[in-house]
Amino acid sequence: MNGTPRLRSAFPTTPRTDPRRRTFNNNERSALGSPPSPFPERPSPIIRPVKTPGERAGAPTPLIPTEIVDVPSQRFYVFGFYIALTAWRLYNSYNVENDLDSTWLFLKWVGIDAAFFVALPAFKIPWLEFSFPTAFTLWLLHAIANAFLMYKIPIPFLTWLGALVKVAYDRELSISEHRVKPGDILHNSSIILGKQIIHILPEGSAILNPEKRAFCIDASRPSVELPIQINQTTPISIELQRYDLETEEVETITISSKQARQLKTQADSGHHKSDTNTPRTLHYPVSKAGLYQLQRVIDTTKLEVRKRSFDTAVVHCPLASISTQSEDRCTGELSNVALRVTGVPPFKVKYSKTVNHKQFSSIVQNVLPHVDLDLVSSDEASAVVLDPRRPHMGWTKSTTESFEINESLHQNGSHSYTIEEVEDGLGNKVVYNGSKSKDFHAPRVQSLTVHNRPRVTLGGLNSDRVLRVREGNAIPLPISIQHVDTLHPSDWPLNVKYSFVSDGEGEAVHSENHVHEMADRRSMPLISQPGKYSLDSVDSQFCRGEVVEPSSCLLHNPPKPGLSMESEDIFDKCAGNPIGMYVNFDFTGTPPFKVRYTISHRGTDFPKVQEFSGMRGQMELRERAAGSYIYTIHEIEDQVYGSVSLKDQNLVLKQDIKPPASAIFHGDNRAVKACLGSPVSIPVRLAGQGPWDLDYELVHAGKRKKHHIHSEDELCMIELPPFAEGGSYSVVLSGVQDKSRCRTTLQEERKIEVRQEQPRAAFGDIDGKRSILALDGRSVKLPLRLNGFAPWAVRLQNLDDGSDSFEQIFRDANAEISVDRPGTYEIVSIHDSCPGVVDSKANKFQVSWLPRPTLSIKDPAIGTEGSKGFRKAAVCQGDESVLALGLTGSPPFHLKYQQKFEPIKGPAAISNKPVTLAGSSAQVNLDTSKAGEYSYVFSELGDARYSPDKKGFAPIVLWQQVYPLPSAKFSQAGKTYGYCKYDPTFTNSAEAETENIPITFTGTPPFSVEIAIIHHGVSTRPEIIRQKDIATRSYSWPLSRATLDLGTHTVSIRSVKDALGCESILDSDPSAVRIHVSSPPAIIPLESQEHYCVGEHVSFSLSGQAPFDVFYTFQNRERKARVSGNEFRRLAESPGEFVITGVSDSAMGNNKCRARKDIRKVIHPYPTVEIGKGKTVISDIHEGGEVDILFTFTGTPPFEFTYTRTENLRKGTGKARVLETRHDTSDEFSKMIRASDEGIYEVVSIKDRFCSYTKPSHKAAGNGGGGLMGGQKKLLTY
């Protein structure tokens, strides 16, 4: 009892000092003369709430932590595992074959169930932690179920179901022909009514705030309820005193009699009416703060109740708030948040810290009041005099305290401080709920935004920290912001301060300071003046930043690029002609340089670019073709200025080129692929002054052959004759000579690869032949044999159908070609990359088709109908009909035909039927199961070679008519004709002695019918009657009654035949009728007694043909009951005279056989008894008093009754014990007795002259006589 209830996740309780005590003795004074302590002791009668059972550290936790699988899921998985075991158990039971399997499976499942119920508590899952007796009981029930399942013992489900239905719907027919519950009659609570309760009043008491709880009020809780506990009393007036906490004024509060009754009624609502000994707690609402005392309580006896009063303080609930001067901070600064608490000290405040929406911790802070030691001196304190009649008020005084939360902020983002709860010194706690944002107890939150400090540097600089910019241009100062993503959008724009110092070339050195506002990371200041730039500082909107190295750079304007050049000619050593020149460049500017120039030759300009990495460079200009060349230099480009035009310098070079003779192969250097027997041409490009003489050699197999060619053109062709053999050849250019007659030696070579053989094509063979027989319409693959290199292009032609040749591409040397038409196929030609030859001995292939199967009808009794139709003779429904067929082909044959049935009434039905036939002659059974027109369309035919299809097969159609079978039935199917054999109401006329039974026919008249009559009990052999020439479909068959004796006779139709010759033979006739010949019925009572009590059964035995109609009168009203069995049994639910007047059976119906009777029975009611006119009378007396108890009876005197006195017990405390049982008699309808002992007086049994009744709760104890259901006793005294 030393702490506030907390969640498991809450911080541990703060260590407490000794609990504060207070002595409630108004006659003692407190010693104010003692030296004051800094924190004076505050006496309080408040007892702190205790921890709930769920918070005890010893509570068991599941074996599997709930962080992995929560408790409901664990229960679900256990339930699913149990369902799987049950399914497996049922599967094993279904597959049991012998007793050995049964024994083994029974032992197996007993072990599995034992393991399951032993292991389950080890998981410690709530609701599944069974004790050992519970687990053993469950295992025993499962073992019994295993025995039933594995040994296949039949379970009496129907018996159990009948018992359950009997319990849920236990109703019987009464004499008044209504269904009633026997229990409602036998256990009638209105027979014995009323009870007398005698209380001996004890002495009462009243206590204010017995649990010493703390109370507080605020805007969300404007009032509280003060508990006043009363015991053994009913107050009519209550007085309270309230001492104001501020002014100490006294207010007297009086609770009136009406309000006290309302409070007492509310307190009794939670208790049973019989529970009068349990103390009641009255909850009186108050809405003012103050110190309350219970002054006086008066009960219904106008006497003052003994009271006990604890000083109960109702204060204002503690209030906490949190605030700060500014909500923006920089990283590294302190939080500086102020927390303010108002209420009764000392306080306990719990608050949490959240950083970027993630809760870091919850802190509990104890706040002690500030005590001014100089406020009251010891002399002044000793002079104070307390009133002993007034309570001490100091421990309820309210104060306001505050403290600051100062902690270093190192992480940027949102920092929130939330007050979760506050508790005052009396134990009043206020929890600020985060889910109620608009409530008075909404969370107190103070949020801070912590901003990162910006860090800047100069980025993108080279090692010398120099920015080179062309003169007059401006570039951004390369300011780089480190970790820019950590800056909040509200931190922008940034204020950057930088300084500039000029380089002092040609003028005095001066310096400048600048401030630039950066809206984003790309918003940098522009600089253009040469000199030194340095970053001084950076500030965001909230924080001062940091400048890191490198923080300074130099801006330099280099000179513009330019060049000067010199040229030197290059001469041929043989002819002395110029063949090119060297050009030397001297550059100014910033390397590297690019020189752009054009070469003009024969009116065409060719732009060129040459790169130089240093300040000096050389370029060699050589041309292969002779002629005049002009070199014009246009632009120069360096690293800083870009392209600079040089057209104003007129840098032009001219030269006439006369190059020496030379020759090269035209095109790429890959080897030339050549076909065997084909010529080859190789192009050669010549240079120099024409005409030219070219020498070359052809090299093959170690042999060289020299050749010479003369050309007037720069591009000439070397023509090589067809090659007779394959292999590798080389063409080598050895020398060339032009107009100057200076010979140039050459080393140019070109390879020629000549194929070793030509491609070849031929047909392969199938089973040693180049011919094949195939199915009509099937694709046939013809094998090919190809030599050469893939892919091959083969051209073929079908010589028999006169079609054009066709060409296909093949990539396999053993390829196959698919054909779908018969004929002789010939290979016309073949080629790959080279033309080829066709093998004349294997260039043809023969393809032929196998013949298809055929179908014909061989039945001579079939007539033709149309060009492809046939009709077969009509038959009766159900007669056999066969169609003979002839087939040609390769058996077995597969025939498909469509059967269409058009009934006499209703829609047509179509069905497709496949048939397999083994020989060339076959028969097909035609359908005659239903009457109507049948048509058969044979549409597809196949054999062992051809699958059934419609190709090449003409459909055959066959028709046949099937006549319907006639039918006959009795118009009133199942009817029972009955009459009395010796009934005097019948006359001797022929019409009266004849029974006309109507029969209905279908078919074509006239009809012939055969009728059988079975005489039950006489002979099992039927009597046959034949009736012919019935011209109509409705016929009344006359049957003489004189031919039938007593008993039951069954009349049925055996066969019927119509004019078409179709006959129906009936094995059994569902429309058969019965004729019952009987004598009048009889009724006999099963009991000899004449007098009955309400709740007993009246039974009679019936003889005759069921069902019976029993006629009787009850309570002067005529009634009729229908009885389907041979016993008439009814429950007597009310008193009266019961007379049987007659009975009839169903031999003839309409009550024609009725017996007159006069059987009388008398039913008597239960006697009744009442105490206090049937009500519960409560009498409160003091010790020694007496109470009159009045008993009132109904019934037939004399009366005998038994009553008991039981102890008064509160509800739920157990079963009341019977203290006394007494037996008494009365010849009158009322009786008075006197009682003075405490207890409950009630009658348990009553008996009059005829009947008796005992309460069901006292039957087992033998209270009352025997009788029906143990609760009645019939007295046979008249």
Automatic annotation (TrEMBL):
<feature type="domain" description="Nucleoporin POM152 immunoglobulin-like">
    <location>
        <begin position="883"/>
        <end position="951"/>
    </location>
</feature>
<protein>
    <recommendedName>
        <fullName>Nucleoporin POM152</fullName>
    </recommendedName>
</protein>
<dbReference type="Pfam" id="PF24527">
    <property type="entry name" value="Ig-like_Pom152_9"/>
</dbReference>
<feature type="region of interest" description="Disordered">
    <location>
        <begin position="259"/>
        <end position="282"/>
    </location>
</feature>
<dbReference type="GO" id="GO:0017056">
    <property type="term" value="F:structural constituent of nuclear pore"/>
</dbReference>
<feature type="domain" description="Nucleoporin POM152 first Ig-like">
    <location>
        <begin position="205"/>
        <end position="314"/>
    </location>
</feature>
<feature type="region of interest" description="Disordered">
    <location>
        <begin position="1"/>
        <end position="44"/>
    </location>
</feature>
<feature type="domain" description="Nucleoporin POM152 ninth Ig-like">
    <location>
        <begin position="1081"/>
        <end position="1162"/>
    </location>
</feature>
<feature type="domain" description="Nucleoporin POM152 Ig-like">
    <location>
        <begin position="758"/>
        <end position="843"/>
    </location>
</feature>
<dbReference type="InterPro" id="IPR056541">
    <property type="entry name" value="Ig-like_POM152"/>
</dbReference>
<dbReference type="InterPro" id="IPR056540">
    <property type="entry name" value="TMD_POM152"/>
</dbReference>
<feature type="domain" description="Nucleoporin POM152 immunoglobulin-like">
    <location>
        <begin position="557"/>
        <end position="659"/>
    </location>
</feature>
<feature type="domain" description="Nucleoporin POM152 Ig-like">
    <location>
        <begin position="1178"/>
        <end position="1252"/>
    </location>
</feature>
<dbReference type="Pfam" id="PF23664">
    <property type="entry name" value="Ig_Pom152"/>
</dbReference>
<dbReference type="InterPro" id="IPR037701">
    <property type="entry name" value="Pom152"/>
</dbReference>
<dbReference type="GO" id="GO:0006999">
    <property type="term" value="P:nuclear pore organization"/>
</dbReference>
<dbReference type="InterPro" id="IPR056542">
    <property type="entry name" value="Ig-like_POM152_1st"/>
</dbReference>
<dbReference type="Pfam" id="PF24312">
    <property type="entry name" value="Ig-like_POM152"/>
</dbReference>
<dbReference type="GO" id="GO:0006606">
    <property type="term" value="P:protein import into nucleus"/>
</dbReference>
<dbReference type="GO" id="GO:0070762">
    <property type="term" value="C:nuclear pore transmembrane ring"/>
</dbReference>
<dbReference type="InterPro" id="IPR056543">
    <property type="entry name" value="Ig-like_POM152_9th"/>
</dbReference>
<feature type="compositionally biased region" description="Polar residues">
    <location>
        <begin position="259"/>
        <end position="268"/>
    </location>
</feature>
<dbReference type="Pfam" id="PF24097">
    <property type="entry name" value="TMD_POM152"/>
</dbReference>
<feature type="domain" description="Nucleoporin POM152 N-terminal transmembrane">
    <location>
        <begin position="70"/>
        <end position="153"/>
    </location>
</feature>
<dbReference type="InterPro" id="IPR056544">
    <property type="entry name" value="Ig_POM152"/>
</dbReference>
<feature type="domain" description="Nucleoporin POM152 Ig-like">
    <location>
        <begin position="453"/>
        <end position="553"/>
    </location>
</feature>
<dbReference type="Pfam" id="PF24519">
    <property type="entry name" value="Ig-like_Pom152_1"/>
</dbReference>
